[in-house]
Amino acid sequence: MDYETMEHASIETFLKADKPRRPGCVLVDVRLPDGNGLDLQARMSAHGVHHPVIIMTGYGDIAMSVRAMKAGAVDFLTKPVRDQDLFDAVVAATSRDHERLADQEDLIELERRYATLSPRERQVMALVTAGRLNKQAAAELSLSEATIKIHRKSAMQKMKARTLADWVRLADRLDGMSREDAAV
């Protein structure tokens, strides 16, 4: 089907290999010479591998398929695998990965815009997007309301937020990213 593929002799060589920065997926058997595909699936995130996973096996059971799906597998295929089923699973997985990479690029751009804010603009953004009125933000920062409005306008322009609602959504995404970074 004209997909570029990469084979790996073991779990360790896969985890250590350079991964391409383009949409893809991992197709792995449950039984591997040096472990199993379900364990690989669990170790991938810790190694910075976030491609969707398709698990296949000739020895699967319901508990195994549930475990794989709960861990985020896109599909669980039993052997012998029909060509169409494999193709459909790969299309679904690479589509999901394309969306993941696009979202990642959006987040990088959002972080880049946020980095252009001055420390005062960041303070104003935090207060206003948390629901404070300009007057309340001014009092909290010991500034005039006019100064808050100037910082607010500048920060919204830098963040490319047309409305307060846009700005709040961007702040929520940034907040979500900082929580994810703290969890890692």
UniProtKB/TrEMBL annotation:
SMART domains reported in the protein's UniProt record: HTH_LUXR (SM00421), REC (SM00448)
GO molecular function annotations of the record: DNA binding
Record domain HTH luxR-type: where: 110-175
CDD domains to which the protein is assigned, alphabetical: LuxR_C_like (cd06170)
SUPFAM superfamilies, per the entry: CheY-like
Highest taxon above the source species: Bacteria
Stored PROSITE patterns: HTH_LUXR_2, RESPONSE_REGULATORY
Domain Response regulatory stretches: 1-94
Keyword annotations: DNA-binding, Phosphoprotein, Transcription, Transcription regulation
Residues recorded as bearing 4-aspartylphosphate in the entry: 29
InterPro entries for the chain: CheY-like_superfamily, Sig_transdc_resp-reg_receiver, Tscrpt_reg_LuxR_C, WH-like_DNA-bd_sf
PANTHER family found in the cross-reference section: DNA-BINDING TRANSCRIPTIONAL ACTIVATOR DEVR_DOSR
Protein name in the entry: DNA-binding response regulator
Source organism: Brevundimonas intermedia
